[in-house]
Prior knowledge:
Layout: H1 29-50, H2 57-61, E1 64-67, E2 70-73, E3 79-84, E4 87-91, H3 99-107, E5 116-118, E6 121-125, H4 131-165, H5 172-205
Antiparallel strand pairs: 1-2, 3-4, 4-6, 5-6
Amino acid sequence: LAGKKPQKGGKGGGRVEINSSVGSEVTDIETVRGKMQKALDALKEEYVKNLSLRTSVGSLDSISVQTVNGRFPLNHLGQIVMKSPQMYHVNMVGAPQEIPSVLQAISQSGMNLNPIQEGNVIKVPIPKVTKEHRENLAKKAKAGCNKTKEQIRDIRNQAMKEAKKAKATVSEDTVRLVEKQIQQLTDDFNGNAEKILEAKSKELLK
Length: 206
């Protein structure tokens, strides 16, 4: 009887051990791993900075403001101070000309904030967390995870192209082993992204 064809994604033969010394002439597995890890780290950072239920100085810091001189994080333009858990102030005395841009950036940050200008100070009331806001953040979390998985897939596809090019000078068995390692990394990092999304969704919707 003819043997069954192995399943795509390296799942047919069980887990593939990642060994960067094998097939190093085909592609650098550690470089592939590093790129995927960078994409995953960016997702974690996005979740912490922009998808938290409680607004913090750190989350306001990361708001990007478009000015005539380029794009800057909010904390480069003004001093952010927590007056109370329900109220933050952004002191714009050092760059009062940027107040309109800062007001717009805070309003459009997706953090459900409605800033109020009083002279050179921008007051930022922190709203109560509603069910609608939780669900909106959960949707953004899923979109962020999908974007990360797309980045991981792009990294995989590029590495696979490099591996296929090496078939002219390297044995087919070596290339196939490298391809399996690339797919294993892809599966691992996609799985990690899903776990991070699951944890964030539980946090947001509990």
